[in-house]
Amino acid sequence: xxxxxxxxxxxxxxxxxxxxSIGMMIFTSIYSIVDGFFVSNFVGKTSFAAVxxxxxxxxxxxxxxxxxxxxxxxxxxxxxxxxxxxKANELFSFFTLLTFLTSLAVAVVVFFFIRPMAAWLGAEGxxxxxxxxxxxxxxxxxxxxxxxxxxxxxxxxxxKPKLGLIVTVLAGVTNMVLDALLVAIIPMGIxxxxxxxxxxxxxxxxxxxxxxxxxxxxxxxxxxxKFDGKALVRACTNGFSEFLSSxxxxxxxxxxxxxxxxxxxxxxxxxYGVVMYVNMIxxxxxxxxxxxxxxxxxxxxxxxxxxxxxxLLKKSLVIIGIVSVAMLTAAELLARPLSLLxxxxxxxxxxxxxxAFMIFSISFLFCGMGIYASSFFTxxxxxxxxxxxxxxxxxxxxxxxxxxxxxxxGIDGVWISVVFAELAGMIVGIAFWIGKRKKYQYW
Length: 443
Known about the structure:
The chain is 86% helix and 0% strand. It is mostly helical. It has one domain (11-440).
């Protein structure tokens, strides 16, 4: 039975509706990790460090797609809730075209500046060469990657979360098969890994275009786009928190790499890469849930259904709390087998990675609340509050902590800084929920 945005959501219906988006995000993370697995085990730790060194920089560009996707889908959901379906379809078409043109222009410019940027961040020698090769190949598929990020939100707003999951699985399988072929069987090294990722991004970005361009039974359809400056500003404002979060996470990752090169060299960067791979999977569950519920919140806000807003927030807090405890438990139990999966060939690197895991995983207790709080206010079209939560959580707290804490605790301070930032971010999110409860009547 099809679940609609206008339904009343029980725990079961809420979980069923969000599971595809959770699966979509987790699977995206898993197939992103496949590059690291094959490069680390079949090419070597310098190339593995290069992948982790340059990837955050590339994700800054991809953040544009996330911004338009999340901000645009919030506006589209609100417009649907107001009963303006034709306007919603105009916005959907406009945002899709805008993302493609913007990403194409940015990718072309960055292609020529990636070497000096990687060098400025501290890469040199073979590490620098590998960064440039991997980065330039992925830049050729950057428009498709941004479209994929955008459609992950649009599929949910179109009441087609399962279709979004199917497209993501297709893209993931493409990446995994090509990684095995081009890295393990045909030894193309880091070039093969980059080509595999690029191909998967084209699958994830282009298949949705063909779907929405043809007659379909979703509530969103492509039609002739119309430029709407006001809607563009609102979408970018709504989605700025997600854009900021993606950019700052990438910036902070680069700052972490700089600190780790200082305290532990290439081994530190490699260990951070392993920890971040697992972090990506766990965080994706929270991001997927937040993304999956955002159109429901936006629709009910547009329809002024305050009782359902209260219902959604209450149930979401319970679900996130339970999952947070489960994630911490799983991370502590799986730390060793997951570390062995990537760095079993180096005892010293394995020990460093295990230590990082045991500290870093405490952050899973707190990060879900901060992520959901930011997404919730995005869905309410309150871009300022959403951006404030993201900025404090991912910039102010993390940057300050990763600079100060290593001075006190050395390499352990790097991992502790993440725990501190997520705890502080959760507190900020709760404070905004309390402060804005009368305005939006969700409490």
